[in-house]
Amino acid sequence: MPRVIKHPDIRRAELLDRASGLFLRHGYDNVSLNDLIADAGVSKGAFYHWFPSKDALIASLAERSAREAFAVIEAALANCTGDALDRLNAVLQAGFDVNMKMGGPEQLAAMVALMRPDNAHLYGRIVAFEGGLFRPLLTRVISDGVADGIFDTFDPEGVADMIYGLAARTNSNIVDVLDAADESARDRAIAALTTRFRLHGLAVDRILALPDESITTLIREQVEAMVAGLPRRY
């Protein structure tokens, strides 16, 4: 039977899909590079052609996920016919919605090791890539709001950076949920994470000169849904 030659993009996507499946089933720390190569059914040389390290593969997975999420968020923005505040809230809500629809809790469970201090370099690389996609979009929405007299800020790009940075810095609160020793501690950690989201929303309200609670933030039920798939400890 003649050998089937697949387009490089298709082959790369298949390797990413298989790797993602392994991480979801076993967790990031429990899957070695040799496990990935064996599951892919390719030679080491072929695998290294695509992904020279486990870190490179994880970064590729995160970048693919970020691009898919960004496309959905762009669509939500395009479909919003309201003013700049409506559009900003649509973007922020779409970010949560797409995370849940794309299997967010499971992805978080598989990738939770990235939040550990010894993986800070890799997580920083992923955050930088995601920020490169999302910050320009946020900047455009905020700039439009300033032009329309809805927002008041002298630095739309700085506010966009702040919004994205605040979201990226909730990791310590998420780790508190993971490390909770019992249900009571987990409940307190979830409450603290909910409070932190509310604080971030109020901070954006104030810096854009909006009435308090103009920016929509996650409520307790949404936070509980977000962390539902997280392992109790890592």
Description:
It contains eleven helices and no strands. The mean pLDDT is 82. With 234 residues, the protein is mostly helical.
Structural class by SSE content: mainly alpha
The biggest beta sheet reads: none
Supply Rg.
Answer: 20 Å
Shape: globular
> What is the number of strand segments?
0
Give the low-confidence spans. none
| Residue fraction in strands | under 5%
Set down the secondary structure blueprint.
Elements: H1 8-26, H2 33-40, H3 44-50, H4 54-79, H5 84-101, H6 104-111, H7 120-147, H8 156-168, H9 171-178, H10 183-207, H11 220-227
Helix pairs in contact: 1-6, 4-5, 4-7, 5-7, 7-8, 8-10, 9-10, 10-11
Notable traits:
single chain; about 230 residues; 11 helices
Summarize the model shown.
The protein is mainly alpha-helical.
